[in-house]
UniProtKB/TrEMBL annotation:
Organism: Eumeta variegata
Protein name: Protein takeout
Alphabetized Gene3D superfamilies for the sequence: Haemolymph juvenile hormone binding protein (3.15.10.30)
Length: 121
């Protein structure tokens, strides 16, 4: 069974993470992220619109009923599921951030000279 649920409209996310420039064995400067430390805040825009299909209770498709309820009560829905939803998204973002900064030399995304900020690994 395939379910598709999406959340659309304005979502503003601000996240802060700690990193230190380090020089690797290859001589490249990378940003070493402090894993596990990741603060974020978020806010939803003026209105959140939910879309979903293929939501079944038994053999009955209740997608339209569920979507109608969520869209009429979007503030309640966001208050109930917003934090767990965003926690799941931020876990993916943090994992990507760690892998990206650990593997891609800083010269590809930072134009400033980071040499003076280097710390030994």
């Amino acid at each position: 069974m395939h379910r598709h649920i999406s959340l659309t409209e304005n979502v503003r996310i601000k996240f802060d993470f700690n990193f230190t420039p380090v020089k690797g064995d290859d001589g490249e400067i990378r940003l070493k992220c402090k894993k596990g430390h990741f603060d974020y805040t978020y806010e939803f825009g003026d209105r959140v619109t939910f879309k979903a299909n293929n939501i079944f209770v038994g053999k009955q498709d209740v997608s339209e009923l569920v979507v109608g309820f969520l869209n009429q009560n979007w503030k309640l829905a966001v208050n109930l599921v917003g934090k767990p939803f965003m926690n799941a998204i931020m876990a993916v973002v943090q994992d990507f951030e760690y892998k990206f900064f650990t593997n891609v030399p800083a010269k590809y995304f930072v134009s400033d000279d980071l040499e003076k900020y280097i710390h030994d690994e």
